[in-house]
Amino acid sequence: MNDYFLNLNSTNNTKLIKEMYQYAKANDVPIISDEGLIYLLQLIRLTNAKKILEVGTAIGYSAIQMASISKDIHIDTIESDIDSYNIAISNINKAKLNDNIHVVLKDGLEVTKMDLMGIASYEYDLIFIDAAKAQYKNFFNLFTPYLKKGGIVVCDNLLFHGLVGLSAEDKEKNITTKNLKGLVRKIEEFNDWLSKQKGYKTDFLKIGDGMSVSTKL
Fold first, then answer.
1. Taking a C-beta distance cutoff of 8 angstroms, is the pair 127, 153 a contact?
2. CATH of the domain spanning 3-156
3. Using one digit for the tens of pLDDT, what is the confidence trace for 157-192?
4. Starting from the edge strand earliest in sequence, which strands make up the sheet with 51-55, in order?
5. CB hemisphere CA count around 10 (13 angstroms)
6. Per-domain residue ranges for the chain?
7. pTM of whole model > 0.90?
8. How confident is the model at residue 117 (pLDDT cuts 50, 70, 90)?
9. Beta strand pairing call for 74-79 and 101-105
10. How far apart are CA 183 and CA 180, in angstroms?
């Protein structure tokens, strides 16, 4: 993102956030892009989302940013890696957002409704999916039954470093391993599948590393 525009934006930029950002960059922790974060936070404000599910906590960067919008926001966030979980818990404690952010240590595909909110009537206003890319379709199908009508699902990294959507020739030049080819193919299949879901109105946006925004009809 253009540094001039980035500096004009009013995202949470506390000492803790700066430390988390630098830690992520130094340790190759995947966190949401600056552009993606700005868009996501504005979307939360515009829709007045209060109950949020995040799939993929990492170190808690985006969860803390989202929860910092309002003291009325509650976030359930899922992380499968114990080391990331412990770092996220520490960061959430430092941010004094323990009452707003509930971290579930579990494989996302094994999470049940009781792991999240623990009450049958709970519905999310917004779901943010930013975890294992090959599982996006499974995450979408698993968690959208907990999304209210009119609620929003945001999926990140759908261009995957610019490798998704390339011509066959460019893929041969830029995608050099079998595993990476398989992952790119799965993301492309998910994008195509998501675009055809009749229960949702989905837009794909060239923001950050590529995002989708799906409204439940």
1. yes
2. 3.40.50.150
3. 999 988 998 888 888 888 889 999 999 999 999 999
4. 101-105, 74-79, 51-55, 124-129, 147-156, 211-216, 200-205
5. 4
6. 3-156
7. yes
8. low
9. parallel
10. 5
